[in-house]
Fold this protein.
Amino acid sequence: MIKVCIANNHPVVHFGVKSYFKDHDDISIVANVGNFLMVRDILLTKEIDVLILDLELEGLASIFDVKNILKNFPKTKIIVFSNLSEQIYAPNAIKAGVSGYVSQKEKLETLGQAIVKVNEGKIIIDETVKKNLALIAKQNKNERLYRKLSNREVEVLRYLSDGKRNKEISKILGLNEKTISTYKLKLLQKMNVTNLIDLVNKAKTLEII
């Protein structure tokens, strides 16, 4: 049996996933957590083959936290199961080392198929994401601008769009406030805008946030 842990903020997701896989031949949900701080404890106490992780999980401040989990628990595969824009977050998540990305809009059958394939060592990205990436590759330089954003820049942009100030973001990500200011400046330059309002609006138009 493939031992799975669900890491998600929403009880309805826990209930739905557990119910669906209750009598599954190959998959067993052996743990549920509602906070990223609990993930490490579970991985230390239980053998988890696949971790189903929501990028908006409480306590998860950065994609670098996910990298650390993968580094410290190399036997555990991670599938991102999220509502965040696949077009921007799936490639970054795969780059960080996760084995798959499944939208929460998909049927649980799709999640089940991903769990089995990931456990076999395969990398899973939704077909929609693959098509989007193919389209992006054909677009002009200006339209592909946001693909140059790093994981950290995307994170800073997301917090800026939520109305958080540089000082707040620095505390969340554990970085110096001046570093956040530097990331903000780079974002303005890369997105070819001159102010925060235009930056956020352009990011929303490109479905980055």
